[in-house]
Each structure stands twice: as C-alpha cells, then as structure tokens.
C-alpha cells in the first residue's frame, strides 16, 4: 500500500512537472499547476515517512506492526493537502511566477515545502538508523525466521536509498529556478528519474514474487482460452482453499 501510493504521487508529480512547469499563462492555470506540484511532491515525502515508520514498527516494535489504511490515507494525503491549503490562504500570490509554475522564492513560501522536507528527512534518518541497528542485532542472533528478515532488509535498503536520492535531489532543487543553473537542472532531472529506476529494480526485477506474477500474467496471455479453462477446472479445491487462507493474512509487510 505504501509503495503503491508513493509511486502514484511520484508519477503524478513528474507528469505535472513535465507538462505544466513552463505553462505560465494563464496565471490561474499556472497557480493551479504550482499547487499540484506542491501537493504531490509533499505526498512523496509523507509516504516515504510512512515507509520509515512502518519499517520501524516491523523491526523494533514487532507486535501490532500494521497501521490501519484509513490512518495511512489521512496522513499520506491529508498532511500535504492541509499544508497546500494553508499556504494558498496565507500567500495565494506565491503560487506561480513569471518564469515557472512553482512556489515563489522571494516571499518565503518555498519553506512551506522545504520545511516539511527537512523535517521528514531528519525523522527518517532517525528511524532508519534504529531499524538498521536492530536488523544487525537480529541477523547476529540465531533467528529461525530468516526469510522475513531478508524481506525487511530489502525494504530497508530500498527505503534508505530512496531517502538519499530524494534528499540529495531537493538539495539541488533548492537552486533549480535560479538563473544560470543549467548544471543543477541536469543533476535534478537525473536524480528525479533515478527514483523510478530504483523502485522498478528493487521491487520488480529483484522481487521473486513480482517476477512470478509477470510470468503468470504473460503465460495467461499466451495460453489459449480452452487450455486456461481446463487448467482452472482441474484445479485442486484444497490448494485453492489454502491459497485463500494465505491471502487473507494481513501483516505489516503487505502494507509496505
């Protein structure tokens, strides 16, 4: 769930950025684009924070590691929406400039974005340090549930890498719209594109479960309809029941 909504926010932010960042006319449309960018980029950061919190709960707290989806949605989308609405009420003219459809750098409105970003990065550094430390302790002991630990370690490595790329990206993003910053623009674009590459490699190419789903999907497309029907009719009921019982289990891993 968390990875899904993080990817949705990242996709929407990049899409709006590519399509609308330079569309400064009309003024109202430019302000709307700036507000969307503000919301979706903050959404990326809040869902990344939720990822750090969930990993912390899974490794450190262990028990009751799941978070109710309603709370995830309220935090992941509610916090960015509240920040954007308050910023628009306080400084409505700070959305959109004559050069770009982004937050104004002159009246301090930009800190309604960089302030939460800095706070989230600091919090995630704290969560990840404790998570990595506890993971190292668990691997040092004779733990029978090594498969689960390996999954959590993979989640943690991905989350730390995402945080590093996002944090570094917005260090350069702070100077993105200054004049004569072509090199910074290239670095920002490269780091931004690495987010999607990282998610695809870590959660698709390196995930056996996702690879198996791809293989099953492709086999369903390539297999004739009659053969699929015969395979379905000959399926063992007991195996389907066991699969249903396994799919009904709700753990902290499924939320990440």
UniProtKB/TrEMBL annotation:
GO terms for cellular component: plasma membrane. The keyword Hydrolase does not apply. Residues 1-24 form the signal peptide. One of its GO terms (biological process) is cell surface receptor signaling pathway. Keywords: Calcium, Cell membrane, Disulfide bond, EGF-like domain, Glycoprotein, Membrane, Repeat, Signal, Transmembrane, Transmembrane helix. Belongs to the G-protein coupled receptor 2 family. Adhesion G-protein coupled receptor (ADGR) subfamily. Residues 1-207 form the G-protein coupled receptors family 2 profile domain. Pfam families: 7tm_2 (PF00002). Residues 231-247 have a biased composition (Low complexity). Residues 228-256 are annotated as: Disordered. InterPro entries: GPCR_2-like_7TM, GPCR_2_secretin-like. It is found in: Cell membrane. This is CD97 molecule. One of its GO terms (molecular function) is G protein-coupled receptor activity. It is a multi-pass membrane protein. The chain crosses the membrane at residues 32-50, 70-90, 110-133, 154-177, 183-206. It comes from the Eukaryota.
């Amino acid at each position: 769930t968390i990875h899904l909504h993080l990817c949705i926010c990242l996709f929407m932010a990049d899409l709006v950025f590519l399509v609308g960042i330079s569309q400064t006319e009309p003024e109202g449309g430019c302000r709307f684009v700036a507000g969307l960018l503000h919301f979706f980029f903050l959404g990326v950061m809040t869902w990344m924070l939720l990822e750090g919190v969930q990993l912390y709960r899974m490794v450190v707290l262990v028990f009751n590691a799941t978070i109710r989806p309603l709370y995830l949605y309220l935090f992941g989308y509610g916090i960015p929406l509240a920040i954007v609405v308050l910023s628009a009420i306080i400084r409505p003219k700070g959305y959109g400039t004559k050069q770009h459809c982004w937050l104004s750098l002159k009246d301090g409105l930009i800190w309604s974005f960089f302030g939460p970003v800095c706070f989230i990065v600091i919090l995630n550094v704290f969560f990840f340090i404790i998570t990595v430390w506890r993971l190292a302790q668990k691997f040092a002991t004779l733990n029978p549930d090594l498969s689960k630990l390996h999954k959590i370690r993979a989640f943690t490595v991905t989350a730390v890498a995402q945080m590093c790329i996002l944090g570094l990206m917005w260090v350069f993003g702070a100077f993105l719209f200054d004049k004569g910053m072509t090199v910074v623009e290239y670095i920002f674009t490269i780091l931004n594109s690495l987010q999607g590459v990282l998610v695809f490699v870590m959660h698709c190419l390196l995930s056996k479960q996702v690879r198996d789903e791809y293989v099953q999907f492709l086999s369903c497309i390539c297999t004739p309809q009659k053969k699929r029907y015969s395979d379905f009719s000959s399926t063992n009921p007991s195996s389907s029941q066991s699969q249903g019982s396994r799919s009904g289990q709700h753990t902290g891993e499924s939320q990440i």
